Amino acid sequence: MIMFGALLAISISTADLRRELGVASSDAGIVRDAGSRWIRKNSGQEKAMDNIVPIVAHFPKYRCVILKLRSAAVGESPIYCYNKKYGKLISKHDDVE
């Protein structure tokens, strides 16, 4: 039991999560775009992406990039949705402060 508790106490780094969850090469462009939009929304501060793990959700006509914030106390995670065929932004939910 003690060993199990110790394993739970080990934290996984954001970089490790990004590697583990990965982004398909076909989704890389929209993930970059979503990240750029989030950075601009945060006054151009690159550190806005430091504790974020991008997750792509696929739907029949669109794909959404969820920029999952690692800090639970911050609020919701920003979401950017793109037309699947053309890759154009169709909706966003980034007023999450």
Characterise this structure.
The protein is of the alpha+beta class. The protein has one domain (13-93). 31% of the residues lie in helices and 26% in strands. It is built from three helices and four strands; from the N terminus they run H-H-H-E-E-E-E. The protein has helices at 2-9, 14-21, 28-41; strands at 52-58, 62-69, 79-83, 89-93. It has a four-stranded antiparallel beta sheet with strand order 1-2-3-4. The radius of gyration is 15 Å and the shape is globular. The relative contact order is 0.16.
In short:
The protein is an alpha+beta fold. The chain contains three helices and four strands; from the N terminus they run αααββββ. A four-stranded antiparallel sheet has the order 1-2-3-4.
Assign an overall shape: globular
What's the rounded overall pLDDT mean?
82
Radius of gyration: 15 Å
> Roughly how much helix do the residues carry, as a percent range?
25-40%
Strand order within the widest beta sheet = 1-2-3-4
Q: What is the count of distinct domains?
A: 1
Distance between the termini: 39 Å
Sheet of most strands: 4 strands, antiparallel
- What kind of oligomer do you see? single chain
The share of residues in extended strands comes to 25-35%
**Secondary structure tally, helices:** 3
| SSE string | HHHEEEE
Structural class: alpha+beta
Query: Low-confidence stretches at least 5 residues in length (pLDDT < 50)?
Result: 1-9
By DSSP, the count of extended strands is: 4
